[in-house]
Amino acid sequence: MDNLTTTSKADVETYVNTSVGISNRTSPMRQSYLIPWNNPYNVITQQTSNNILFVLQCVIFPIITLFGSTGNIMSLVILIQKKLRNSTGVILIAITFADLCFLITNMTRKSSCLISMIDEYAEEIYTATIFGPLFFVITSFSRVSAWLVVLVSIERVIAVTFPLKIKVWVSKQRMVMAVIVIYILTFVFLSPIAFQYKVGSMFSQRTNTTSYFISTSEFYSSYEDILTVHNEILGTVLFRYLPVFLTMLFNLIIIINLQRRSLRRKAMTSSKTDNKSEDKITRMLLIISAVCLICTTPGSLLLLVSRFVDGFEFFGKYHNIFVVFSDLSLLLSMINSSVNFIIYMVCNKQFSEAYTTIFCRCRSLSTMRKHKPTMTDTSKGTTITTVGSTSTNEKIPSIVPDETVSCDEISKDHIKCSQTTEDS
After folding, report:
1. What pLDDT is stored for residue 276 in this prediction?
2. CA angle 271, 162, 288 (to 5 degrees)
3. How far apart are CA 314 and CA 33, in angstroms?
4. Residue 323: pLDDT band by 50, 70, 90 thresholds?
5. Model confidence over 285-305: pLDDT tens digits?
6. Which residues of 118-157 are buried (b: 16+ CB within 10 A; e: fewer)?
7. Cα–Cα distance between 364 and 368 in angstroms, integer?
8. Which residue of 16, 110, 134, 356 lies most exposed, with the fewest beta carbons within 10 A?
9. The three-state (H, E, C) secondary structure of the chain, written as one string
10. pTM of the complete model beyond 0.85
11. pLDDT for 13-46, tens place per residue?
């Protein structure tokens, strides 16, 4: 669903108006990505599309990647703490890791926008070379994250529906195995994506230069029918629509059970603290699932529309508007991978306390090192000198000239202090 970018648009437009270019555009998966950028059917112009993509890829994407990566790294540091490594924590660690890898690899591919500002020819080669492997990795981590949200929804359904069985049915070891299975099956199933593309080239006699672009590989040409079913049917249903449907279903069950539990609790004179704590965790995970649904549903709808609207695809006559919507749906996916840290901080007291303990204490210790007191022995007692941010232990001037405070220890619980004047 992500858009591809190219340069040498004049050569592209010349090529697609030939019989070879037209024949390439008639197959379900074209042999190259050479397309009619300025055909009259486009809803928006090529220049408008390029301007929107520039703002998204060169400005907004880097900002979100920096913010989201920082938040995910901090989340990993906190979640691996021993008191947070329970069955739910295992899934959250897996989701955070997948989100972090998605953001980094996606920005690595989208950095072609920044490279083009320096050298357009280098951007052509860079985009064509890295697209196949990175598209596979980006897609895999995105789909892993979607299925991990389904897993955490299942875990919460068991917690609110069978609270007495949760510790028996859902253990940390079983969650670790479930996470590993999701990672392995997703990457194995989507692995053919990495081999469907190669670097293509086209020599222009008019400019005496070679343009590089993304082309489908011989592997795809040999198994086109099988890979079409794999990509457009199995891959779409299993890793797009099914996770969205299951997440919505399980969240509905969770909401109904939470409402029933709330009504039962109001009817009772007292309630258990453990149940309240579980409800808070459930609500936090419910918010994570809801954000995931909101951010991933537009991409699924975009894919659905492209199946029914002729020409609404990257190689179609509505290319310019398609690539804009494609990057907007990618923007929502990046937001989904970036905001979980904020949800943890707002909704989970244990997480926020761990954050304060780890990061705020580090900052306070750094401040204390800059302003720690030093003890200097004197014949009368102990002289306390406060050292600021200076590199040497120089004496801080007193309000009263040539005076210090001398303290003689009387007992462990009492210190007698008296002012003395130093001899000149």
Report:
1. 63
2. 85
3. 8
4. confident
5. 888 888 988 998 898 888 888
6. eeeeebbbbbbebbbebbbbbbbbbbbbbbbbbbbbbbbb
7. 6
8. 356
9. CCCCCCCCHHHHHHHHCCHHHHHHCCCCCCCECCCCCCCCCCCCCHHHHHHHHHHHHHHHHHHHHHHHHHHHHHHHHHHCCHHHCCHHHHHHHHHHHHHHHHHHHHHHHHCHHHHHCCCHHHHHHHHHHHHHHHHHHHHHHHHHHHHHHHHHHHHHHHHHHCCCCHHHHCCHHHHHHHHHHHHHHHHHHHHHHHHCEEEEEEEECCCCEEEEEEEECHHHHHCHHHHHHHHHHHHHHHHHHHHHHHHHHHHHHHHHHHHHHHHHHHHCCCCCHHHHHHHHHHHHHHHHHHHHHHHHHHHHHHHHHHHHCCCCCCCCCCHHHHHHHHHHHHHHHHHHCCCHHHHHHHHCHHHHHHHHHHHHHHHHHHHHHHCCEEEEECCCCEEEEECCCCCCCCCCCCCCCCEEEEEEECCCCCEEEEEEECCC
10. no
11. 443 333 333 333 333 333 334 444 566 667 788 8
Which pLDDT belongs to residue 82?
63
96 has pLDDT over 90 = yes
Q: Is the pLDDT of residue 60 over 60?
A: yes
- Cα separation, 235 vs 253, in Å, equals 26
Distance CA 138, CA 136 (A): 6
pLDDT over 50 (residue 415): no
Of 104-118, 273-287, 355-369, give the lowest mean pLDDT range. 355-369
Q: Which of residues 179 and 401 earns the better pLDDT score?
A: 179
Look at residue 330 and tell me whether its pLDDT is greater than 60.
yes
Q: Which residues have CB under 8 Å from 79's CB, separation 6+?
A: 85, 89, 92, 93, 96, 351
CA distances from 359 to 136, 320, 368 (A): 35, 45, 14
Centre a 10 Å sphere on the Cβ of residue 166 and count the other Cβ atoms it contains: 17
Q: What is the mean pLDDT of residues 402-416?
A: 40
Question: Distance between CA 345 and CA 284 in Å, rounded?
Answer: 10
CB 51 within 8 A of CB 234: no
Give the closest residue to 136 by CA, choosing from 52, 96, 194. 194
Residues 178, 55: Cα–Cα separation, whole Å: 39
Residue 88 has pLDDT above 70, yes or no: yes
Is there a contact between 92 and 156 (Cβ–Cβ < 8 Å)? no
Q: Which two tokens stand for residue 239?
A: 């890793």
